[in-house]
Amino acid sequence: MMVSGFAWLLVFQLAGEVMVRGLQLPVPGPVLGMLLLLLVLIWRGGPSDNLRNTSQGLLGHLSLLFVPAGVGIMVHGHRIADEWLALVVALVFSTVLALAVTVLVMRACRGRSSPTTSSAEERP
């Protein structure tokens, strides 16, 4: 039943919202709720079939969530036209910054792990 899967998702979203508002944390409530759900699922050994089916159903309709963003772009097209340069600079800068941080994190993670040898290096 998808109802129990939705209930799980909504309960953890509510728990995240309550924790964020109660503790005045600087993170969105749904993000904290999904982190809590992840921890519970790890503790339980994985999701139930109901939660798995509900999640797959939601992911199948994920593209619908982009409709409001597209409508916003169409409604505020004149503002985008007026501020296109700032938007392009911000997008390029944030993309380059994200790539640089990813490279640094990967190098740091790679440095911590034990070096592995490939099968080609082991051959005489």
Radius of gyration equals 22 Å
What structural category characterises the helix and strand content? mainly alpha
The SSE string, one letter per element, is HHHHHHH
Largest sheet composition = none
Per the principal axes of the C-alpha atoms, what is the gross shape? Answer: extended
Mean pLDDT figure: 85
Multimerization status: single chain
Task: Indicate the percent of residues in helices.
Answer: over 70%
Poorly predicted regions are none
**Overall strand count:** 0
Question: How much β-strand is present in the residues?
Answer: under 5%
Total number of domains: 2
N- and C-termini, Cα separation? 58 Å
Helical stretch tally: 7
Describe the structure in your own words:
- This protein has helices spanning 2-23, 29-44, 49-60, 67-75, 77-82, 84-112, 119-122.
- With 124 residues, it is an all-alpha fold.
- The protein has 2 domains: 1-60; 65-113.
- Helix 1 (2-23) packs across helix 2 (29-44) and helix 1 crosses helix 3.
- The chain is extended, with a radius of gyration of 22 Å.
- The protein starts with a helix and ends with a helix.
- 5% of the residues are buried.
- It is found in: Cell membrane.
- It is a multi-pass membrane protein.
- Keywords: Cell membrane, Membrane, Transmembrane, Transmembrane helix.
- InterPro entries: LrgA/CidA (IPR005538).
